[in-house]
């Protein structure tokens, strides 16, 4: 059994983490296993950034274990509208995060384990990390049919993906992180990782769909805690270090100076949405009003998450051209966001002539525009 210790009682680790790279004490070496006490996706991603930026890994390797409350995490160069169902995520209060590494989109919840392997760039070897996980799983349950693919996934029974991989390679340091499905909510996973948005054209990195399966489905006796302990023990054995998981609090500024700033940056609209590669939307929708059906065509170019160019094509007799032009003008330069579009629409409505028929048509158009976002 892997013993757990509080970070407050681990003076050795405290010394390591509090010391910036420039003043790092080279006398400490070996490996380190740490686990977050937080389930907040932004805090845990900030820990990755902090260790990558501040920890000297020349004489040590670090394994970071973490789990999140429901969240969708996209790769550094991905488009959230292309990758997930943002409307459903808002309804279910599922967070969206953009990580610093590349790769595809993943769903996290407490039934999903996250593992981050930190090394120097020279020692970076994700295949060895994945083999370590497979070895730990087989030691725990020898009957499990698990193996690593050439795409750096881990498959169960030769067909079901239980782990995906991404990495960040810095100048001197690197990290490889991966997921491990234990008992995640597969219904929510499949629902939120299915984009409902039509007419998107983007050069963003697309995710590769795969059939997934929980390890719990293969063996109901398995728990996340058992898997974490098994992987930590195998890591400790391979690196000849103490079989101890040290608990860390990602909000503790005394241990991670400046980490709150990193956490806040990862939550900003500018990072989560504004870093989306340029894309376009060209789509049509039907508006049913009284006894008629109206076809509306919308074209938009979006850069840095903001509408760069916009065109709305609908019959002049349905809405005064000047009013439609005012909407297009207001949307241009605004965030490609349902909240911001709703606010703009409400503001413009207040300066419209007071006409119930006109207001009803306006509201219907704006409601449909919001669904595109």
TrEMBL record:
The EC number(s) this enzyme carries? 2.3.1.200
Q: Which reaction does it catalyse?
A: (R)-lipoyl-5'-AMP + L-lysyl-[lipoyl-carrier protein] = N(6)-[(R)-lipoyl]-L-lysyl-[lipoyl-carrier protein] + AMP + 2 H(+); N(6)-[(R)-lipoyl]-L-lysyl-[glycine-cleavage complex H protein] + L-lysyl-[lipoyl-carrier protein] = L-lysyl-[glycine-cleavage complex H protein] + N(6)-[(R)-lipoyl]-L-lysyl-[lipoyl-carrier protein]
Q: Where is the BPL/LPL catalytic domain?
A: 57-243
- Molecular functions (GO terms): lipoyltransferase activity
**Uppermost EC category:** transferase
Provide a GO CC annotation, any one: mitochondrion
Task: Name its pathway.
Answer: Protein modification; protein lipoylation via exogenous pathway; protein N(6)-(lipoyl)lysine from lipoate: step 2/2
Checking CDD domains in the record gives: LplA (cd16443)
Which Pfam families has this protein been placed in?
A: LplA-B_cat (PF21948)
| Swiss-Prot/TrEMBL keywords | Acyltransferase, Mitochondrion, Transferase, Transit peptide
Localization terms from the record: Mitochondrion
Its annotated function is as follows: Lipoyl amidotransferase that catalyzes the transfer of lipoyl moieties from lipoyl-protein H of the glycine cleavage system (lipoyl-GCSH) to E2 subunits of the pyruvate dehydrogenase complex (PDCE2). Unable to catalyze the transfer of octanoyl from octanoyl-GCSH to PDCE2. In vitro, it is also able to catalyze the transfer of the lipoyl group from lipoyl-AMP to the specific lysine residue of lipoyl domains of lipoate-dependent enzymes but this reaction may not be physiologically relevant.
- Protein name (Swiss-Prot/TrEMBL): Lipoyl amidotransferase LIPT1, mitochondrial
């Amino acid at each position: 059994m892997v013993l757990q210790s509080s970070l407050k009682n681990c003076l050795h680790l405290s010394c390591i983490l509090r010391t910036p790279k420039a003043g790092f004490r080279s006398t400490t070496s070996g490996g380190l296993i740490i686990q977050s006490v937080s389930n907040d996706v932004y805090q845990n991603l900030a820990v990755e950034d902090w260790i990558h930026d501040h920890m000297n890994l020349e004489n040590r390797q670090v394994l970071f274990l973490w789990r999140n409350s429901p969240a969708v995490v996209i790769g550094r160069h991905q488009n959230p509208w292309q990758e997930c169902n943002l409307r459903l995520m808002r309804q279910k209060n599922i967070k969206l995060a953009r990580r610093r590494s590349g790769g595809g989109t993943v769903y996290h919840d407490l039934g999903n384990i996250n593992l981050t392997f930190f090394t120097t760039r020279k020692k970076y070897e994700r295949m060895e990390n994945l083999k370590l996980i497979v070895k730990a799983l087989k030691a725990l349950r020898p009957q499990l049919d698990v193996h690593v693919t050439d795409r750096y996934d881990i498959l169960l029974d030769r067909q079901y993906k239980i782990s995906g991989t991404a990495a960040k390679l810095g100048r001197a340091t690197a990290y490889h992180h991966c997921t491990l499905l234990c008992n995640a909510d597969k219904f929510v996973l499949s629902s939120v990782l299915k984009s409902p948005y039509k007419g998107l054209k983007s050069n963003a990195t697309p995710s590769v769909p795969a059939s997934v399966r929980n390890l719990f489905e293969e063996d109901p006796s398995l728990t996340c805690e058992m898997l974490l302990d098994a992987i930590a023990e195998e890591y400790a054995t391979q690196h000849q270090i103490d079989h101890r998981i040290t608990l860390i609090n990602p909000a503790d500024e005394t241990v991670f100076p400046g980490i709150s700033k990193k956490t806040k940056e990862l939550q900003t609209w500018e990072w989560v949405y504004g870093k989306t590669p340029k894309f376009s939307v060209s789509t049509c929708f039907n508006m049913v009003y009284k006894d008629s059906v109206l076809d509306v065509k919308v074209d938009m170019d979006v850069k840095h998450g903001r509408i760069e160019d916009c065109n709305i094509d609908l019959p002049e007799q349905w809405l005064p051209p000047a009013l439609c032009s005012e909407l297009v003008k207001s949307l241009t330069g605004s965030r490609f966001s349902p909240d911001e579009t709703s606010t703009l629409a409400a503001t413009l409505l207040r300066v419209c002539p007071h006409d119930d028929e006109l207001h009803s048509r306006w509201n219907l158009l704006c409601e449909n525009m919001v669904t595109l976002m």
